[in-house]
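Technical note accompanying the year-one report. For the benefit of new consortium partners, we illustrate the data format agreed upon in the data management plan: each record pairs a sequence with a structure-token string. No post-processing was applied to the example shown here.
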Amino acid sequence: MSIKLGMVGGGVMGEALLSRLIAQQLYRPDDVLVSEPQAHRREFLVQKYGIKVTSDNRAAAAASDVLFLAIKPQVFEAVAADLAEGDREPRQAGEPLPIVISILAGVSLNKLEAAFGRQPVIRAMPNTPATVGAGITAIAPGKAVTPNHMKQATAIFQAVGQVVEVPEHLMDAVTGLSGSGPAYVAIMIEALADGGVAAGLPRAIASKLALSTVLGTAQLLQESEIHPAQLKDQVTSPGGTTIAGITQLERAGFRSALIEAVQAAKERSQQLGH
């Protein structure tokens, strides 16, 4: 089999995964075929990674071990019609069908399995830190998925960060938290830097302080394995500066705003699947 990884969609997340898989030699460039409708994007992927490209979705599915769906959920119905099993070239007797791995927000395993017939389907939700190998991906297996399929999918997503397995009914919640979460964190970092500027710091220094504070705090929590509330208490002295800042955050509803953001994103993920 000449193509081991077929990818439908060559956008940011697809490229993030692709770049890490090639860099870590899980796949050679000759093993990869990406279907992408935009000619300039196809040319970019060829020049940067040396992979095969096509504008034909069926070509990416026809001879691959793994079929990776990295498209917008809004175009799923049209793409699924293209990839209907009956339209593909027949496989030799005994030749396994490719695993389908979908990163489409809101598109359920039921919909995916209805579109891909007997093929094993895995639903996944990575996030944008995957582009630097620091992402986290949640995966949920379909009915035809075996432990070997899960092992293969886990190896793919470990190339871009950590992997957790969740039941499918939690995937919309994952989308609301870790899928959309990088945007919330980016807004928080921007706001911290703006606060520094408002307090008199030069923009460049304020931005560096804000970014390093968030990055360092996350690393400290991860390595120490302490509860975030415990770390907060450790840096909050009686009548000090930190409790004054926290009081203002609570007054502004900072925590409830983040909770509601995750809930709203979860609900939108559910809407996209209908």
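Partners are asked to follow this layout when depositing records. The mean pLDDT is 90.
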